[in-house]
Amino acid sequence: MGFSVKGKTVLVTGAAMGMGRLFAEKAIKDGADYVIIWDINAPELEKTAAALEEAGGKVHAQVVDVADLDQIEKAAQEVNEQYGAPHVLINNAGVVRGKHFWDHDNLRDTKFTIDINVLAPMYITRAFINGMLERKDESRIINLASAAGTVANPKMSVYAGSKWAALGWSDSVRLELEQEGHKHVKVTTVCPSYIDTGMFEGAKGPLLAPILKPQEVVDKSWEGMKNGTPLIFLPKTVLLSKGLKGVLPTKAWDFLAGRVLGVYHSMEEFKGRESKESAE
Known about the structure:
Number of domains: 1
Number of helices: 8
Keywords: Oxidoreductase
Number of strands: 7
Helix content: 40-55%
CATH topology: Rossmann fold
Distance between the termini: 32 Å
Low-confidence stretches: 275-280
CATH class: Alpha Beta
Mean pLDDT: 95
GO molecular function: oxidoreductase activity, acting on the CH-OH group of donors, NAD or NADP as acceptor
Family: Belongs to the short-chain dehydrogenases/reductases (SDR) family.
CATH superfamily: NAD(P)-binding Rossmann-like Domain
Organism: Hoyosella subflava (strain DSM 45089 / JCM 17490 / NBRC 109087 / DQS3-9A1) (Amycolicicoccus subflavus)
Largest sheet: 7 strands, parallel
Strand order of the largest sheet: 3-2-1-4-5-6-7
Radius of gyration: 18 Å
Order of helices and strands: EHEHEHEHEHEHEHH
Protein name: Putative oxidoreductase
């Protein structure tokens, strides 16, 4: 029998809207006992919590700025004391900056992106993973990386760097757990191309990698999580691109990615979400 969230606790970051909210809805639909939702956007978080409760879920909402280690540790302590470590942890919160590297502000752009996309998943996972290990029953961790973590791309250098880090860290933790005999805790790393959530407004889907629907990404991530799938690339052509980049000479790959697939031009008309400080 496969892994089920029925009767279990699920924690989702960046849960006030977008994919985070869809993950929370999925957890309730599948019978989770408690769904813990984190987000910095208090008004939207309150609305989402009310909607989830109306759908029959037991919800614990916490306003948390995941760029702030102190807030993470305080919120995590509350969760551990009240519910114990979650059976499913979904590190979904993320931000993007679409500009040339030299136009990034060190504090508002670079540090902010690294804090949320790289350090937050590490800090949050560290706050709960020992409880998962000690509990001995089946647990799952989903980390949202990106196709940008596999292929370099102009006008998203810091974002790409953050997702390369997220992918490397997440899959390394998976291996550590397997090698040390902690096979009851499984890590799934998800690497989607552009998703139609508003976060990538203006970006163009490269050839063979159309803009993804949020529900599709959530559904496939959820199934992969239950099956213990280590890595999920969406669409599967992302994996093809990763392979081609690995075998082709750099100039040949640059020509293919830039002139044929359109990867290198996909961010030229990027606008992003109107409120760029919101995480998703």
